[in-house]
Amino acid sequence: MDGRESLELRSGEFLRPRLRGARFEDGSISLDIIGELAALREMVLAVARWHLLETSSWRQRSPRWFNRIDLRLTAIDRGSAVPVISLVPDGTLPQGVSLKYEGLYEQARDAIADMIGAAEHSAPSAPTWRFPNRFLAYFNRIGRSLRDDESIEFLTPSRSEPVRLTKQSRLRLIRWSSMADVSYLTLRGVISEADQARMTFELQPVYGPKVRGPIPHEYLGTVMTAFNQYHRGERVMVEGIGRTAWSNRASTLQSVHRISLLDPLDVPARLDEFRKMRNGWLEGDGRAPDPAGLDWLSDSFERHYPDDSPLPHTYPTPEGGVEMEWSFGSRSGILEIDLEKRLGDWLGFDKESDEEDSYKLEMSDNTGWERIAAEIRRLSERH
Amino acid sequence: MNDCTLLYRVVNSNYVQGDEVSSQAFRPRPQDRKRLSAYDGDQISPQAAWRHYTNDMSNPPAGVLGVTVSECSAEELPVQPDPVSFPEHVLIDFTEFGTNQIKKKSEHLRDKAIARGWLFLNQSVT
Q: Among candidates A94, A97, A37, which has minimal Cα distance to A71?
């Protein structure tokens, strides 16, 4: 079986990628390729999750069932090697739920195949209507062991001909992954330019390239206040739709929905400052905080720390973590956060009486932040 | 060195936010084995200490703060000269204390130093 029929899906199958090339003629698959199929699984799940969040009211997180449907390698057919991948719900998931959402994974699979097809046919850029370019970064891992004479063919039900991932098409996909996406952005920085005649402004984000955008009439006052306080570092938060570039190219905002002045202690803006840090920042030692950890902390703090609670001063730690410090007269609180383990180490104390309270706490959900907010309330009230 | 001698700490710019300074600026790092390095103010000026400390001008320290030997003694932190590293080097010894005590004592020292004010401030940072 070496023709198109070896790629066609049978009942219960999700994908039958065919590995072409001398290396695969005996029907065996090297462990390198197995690792790459694992990356393909991650990509399908990520794109499906993105699609779900884009099209439903679940804006914050995907539903619990999402982790209970998986892609598994269920067989390997011979005739050049054909790994058979199936969509497998775990036994605890009601059948109706599984069937209802299988379409999401199939949409993700078809969209990925479309991207591969566009790259194979040398399209000048990625088809923008499928999913954001950033997901194409998975091709850094998918197909990386392919040699010049090898390819992976994918056939989806909506296609009459398979698409081929080759060394060349893969490089094109990776190149596209760093090209601009249009998405909803929240940026923090200073207003470095304001043009009242054109009603445009330029934002210098705390981290990253400058961004230009239109000034909505209702926010002209805010923009001018921030612009006039530029040298004092007055920061704003700008929310809108814009083009993001993963390289250092300038970005633009097509529309601006909201501009607000930031508290000087705004935690996400302060965390953005840490993104410039490099290993060795403290006397040649000192680990720079991990960017993904900063993303998590920024989001988690914004989401769970109450708006009306006093903001902390925020500093990096030599171990690559973050320390938040609150001070109310003789009372202080220090929260050390491990970005990797998402654990907090709290110490509240009175500098006069030496009375203290300390414990470790889980910071990965709202409960840790609620406990910290309660501690801060207590410290500030007693003051 | 006597009770009134000022001990200088060169403060990393990441430990400064607005007018505040992290208590970490007066806390030994894990690799310091609970001994905090400082400069003996009887032997060197704050500005010279800053220059001595600063290797990387792309990320210069914010400035120099100081506490006296007697302020360290009040926290039960002995101060020892350590001229092996360089002649003006001294060590503020936290070895008798656990993590929480070290955090609290570092904050006390920070408060004393801030009340005294910056002894040298790198203008390019502020």
A: A37
Provide Rg for chain B, Cα atoms: 13
Kindly state whether A356 is in contact with chain B, defined as any CB-CB distance less than 8 angstroms. Answer: yes
Distance from CA of B31 to the nearest CA of A (A): 9
* pTM for the full predicted model: 0.66
User: Is the Cβ of B104 closer than 8 Å to some Cβ of chain A?
Assistant: yes
3-state helix, strand, coil in chain A (%, to 5): 35, 30, 35
**Contact indicator for A297, A322 with CB cutoff of 8 Å:** yes
| In chain B, residues 41-100 whose CB comes closer than 8 Å to chain A | 55, 59, 100
Parallel, antiparallel, or unpaired for β A331-338 and A322-328? antiparallel
- Among A282, A313, A314, select the one facing B12 at the smallest CB separation: A282
**A233 part of contact set with chain B, CB < 8 Å:** no
Please name the helix (run of DSSP H) or strand (run of DSSP E) that holds residue A343, with its range, or none.
strand A343-350
The interface predicted TM-score of the complex, written ipTM, equals: 0.94
Torsion of CA A177, A105, A242, A322, to 10 degrees: -80
- The residue count for chain A: 383
For residue A354, give both structure tokens: 């030496």
Letter string b/e over residues A92-102, b meaning 16 or more CB atoms within 10 A of that residue's CB:
ebeeeebeebe
Tens-binned pLDDT, residue by residue, of chain A (383 aa): 456 666 677 777 899 999 998 888 887 888 888 889 999 999 998 898 888 776 664 444 456 666 677 888 888 886 668 888 988 877 776 667 666 678 889 989 999 999 999 999 877 766 666 788 888 989 999 999 898 889 999 998 888 889 999 999 999 999 888 766 666 788 999 999 999 999 999 999 998 888 999 999 999 999 999 999 999 999 999 988 877 654 444 578 888 988 999 999 999 999 999 999 999 999 888 999 998 899 999 989 988 899 889 999 999 999 999 999 999 999 999 999 999 999 999 999 999 998 999 999 999 888 999 999 999 999 998 65
The answer to whether residues B121 and B114 touch, using CB atoms and an 8 Å cutoff, is no
Is residue A331 within 8 A of residue A310, CB to CB? The reply is: no
